[in-house]
Design goal:
about 35% strand; DUF7025 domain-containing protein; DUF7025; three-stranded antiparallel beta sheet
Length: about 180
């Protein structure tokens, strides 16, 4: 299956998207700064789930085929994930859906709850062991009492099998319904 600006490839039962259009490469590169797409314009399709809402909102009219393909490819999975996450659980492979770019999250640092915003998220593989891990880049704005300080953090979540309680993750999505949402956002 090939389109003018991307193609779908499959290796070891994992679907990849090869970006063929320079404009699309530039756009996707902005969401994945740690990956050099100009050198190797390939990403696991599942990694695009973390930026799907942003792509749809900002570039939906430019690349509707790609966005429709991702939504169609993962529609059943997205429904199941919504049901599971409503019950407070998540599988490792579905972390990109839980932490889309722009999602507000919170974590504990030295016993203090910190509100943060996701700036990047992707599943990666350790080079030596071949084990998967999920990396979340976040940004927090704090204060020293006189000025605001912008800080960046990276959280790593190692692969696990089965379901895990969301509130046991090192970073937890912050929903508008949460009591602490207005205090942290």
């Amino acid at each position: 299956m090939s389109y003018n600006y991307y193609s779908i490839e499959e290796k070891n039962n994992i679907k990849y998207i090869r970006f063929l259009d320079y404009n699309l490469i530039s756009i996707v590169q902005s969401y994945f700064p740690n990956v050099d797409l100009f050198r190797n314009a390939v990403l696991p399709a599942k990694n695009l789930l973390s930026v799907l809402n942003n792509l749809k909102k900002n570039y939906g009219s430019y690349f509707p085929g790609l966005i429709n393909w991702i939504e169609e490819q993962y529609k059943d999975e997205i429904k199941i994930i919504r049901i599971i996450t409503e019950k407070g659980f998540i599988e490792f492979d579905n972390l990109p859906l839980l932490f889309p770019i722009g999602q507000y999250v919170h974590s504990k640092y030295d016993g203090t709850i910190i509100g943060e915003k996701v700036t990047g998220a992707e599943i990666k593989v350790y080079a030596k062991s071949g084990n998967e891990y999920f990396e979340i880049s976040i940004e927090a704005i704090g204060s020293d009492g006189c000025s605001l300080i912008r800080t960046s953090y990276t959280y790593t979540i190692n692969f696990w099998k089965g379901l895990r309680k969301i509130d046991k993750l090192p970073v937890i999505p912050l929903l508008k319904e949460d009591e602490i949402y207005n205090k942290l956002v």
